[in-house]
Amino acid sequence: MAAKGAHITPNIEVKPSLFEVLAADSLNITFYPAIKRVVDFLATAKPAVFGELVRYYDEFYLVFNGLVQGYYIKQYGGSLAEVFYGLTRQSLRSKTFSRKDRNWSFVVLVLVPYAVRKLEKACARWKEDYENSKHVPAHRKQLFRLLPYLQACYEGAKLIHYVSYLANVTKTHSPSLRVLELGLTYLSEEEESWSFKDVLQGKVRVATMISAALLRWLELSAFFLQFIEWWQTEANIGDLSKLPIPDAPDQDSNANKYANVCPICLQKHIIPTAVSVSG
């Protein structure tokens, strides 16, 4: 950060690097599956209490994401992931972040992902019904067939924006920010420092403590989620040497007929081999 601050002058505008904006986007995408894992774990431990959260997880996450993103958009002018990496949003024209920009940013960060997830799940359900020979209306068949192409076009547009942003052709790195006419810049406000003595004396706002706690929790969660992903990967792969060895099949008439002979070329074995799948 010191190197970045050394180049900040009133006449020079420092643009965040592509790696910083990509890291913020990746972190923002991680929230949904990460919290879902926590909800699934709670539902497994207490199905009577947390079972409904799994069923209505999209609605639960909509409320949670709306509260968190709404607070950070209003307080810092950016999403939680963007503020975590020291970034904030501003208009490409006025270099400000107006109330209209905040409202549209909230729609794109909270409401649009919810609608897209609902559409994807509905299309997957319609496609499954169609493959199971169930009646599906014509417009729904067209929709779930068209959805992969729309997703591919959007990913292609994102790639074009990444390359353009890296080449300094555009000031925005994503299609959504381009539509909103917003760009990312470094957060000018420094993090407020406070101690427990200031808390006891009432010098620190509750909102400040909550914001700091969320950011610290986010730092720990990033490592914890990576550890959980590694743990699950290792558990899924497992150790093949610990698998039970099946019993040998009973010999039939072909066993004696092709003893020590290759059943394909009917010649004696020169290099004995074994199938790697079954041994």
Automatic annotation (TrEMBL):
<dbReference type="GO" id="GO:1990429">
    <property type="term" value="C:peroxisomal importomer complex"/>
</dbReference>
<dbReference type="GO" id="GO:0016558">
    <property type="term" value="P:protein import into peroxisome matrix"/>
</dbReference>
<keyword id="KW-1133">Transmembrane helix</keyword>
<keyword id="KW-0862">Zinc</keyword>
<dbReference type="Pfam" id="PF04757">
    <property type="entry name" value="Pex2_Pex12"/>
</dbReference>
<keyword id="KW-0813">Transport</keyword>
<feature type="domain" description="Pex N-terminal">
    <location>
        <begin position="27"/>
        <end position="233"/>
    </location>
</feature>
<keyword id="KW-0576">Peroxisome</keyword>
<comment type="pathway">
    <text>Protein modification; protein ubiquitination.</text>
</comment>
<keyword id="KW-0479">Metal-binding</keyword>
<protein>
    <recommendedName>
        <fullName>Pex N-terminal domain-containing protein</fullName>
    </recommendedName>
</protein>
<dbReference type="GO" id="GO:0006513">
    <property type="term" value="P:protein monoubiquitination"/>
</dbReference>
<dbReference type="GO" id="GO:0008270">
    <property type="term" value="F:zinc ion binding"/>
</dbReference>
<keyword id="KW-0472">Membrane</keyword>
<dbReference type="GO" id="GO:0004842">
    <property type="term" value="F:ubiquitin-protein transferase activity"/>
</dbReference>
<keyword id="KW-0653">Protein transport</keyword>
<keyword id="KW-0863">Zinc-finger</keyword>
<dbReference type="InterPro" id="IPR006845">
    <property type="entry name" value="Pex_N"/>
</dbReference>
<keyword id="KW-0812">Transmembrane</keyword>
<dbReference type="GO" id="GO:0005778">
    <property type="term" value="C:peroxisomal membrane"/>
</dbReference>
<dbReference type="InterPro" id="IPR017375">
    <property type="entry name" value="PEX12"/>
</dbReference>
<comment type="similarity">
    <text>Belongs to the pex2/pex10/pex12 family.</text>
</comment>
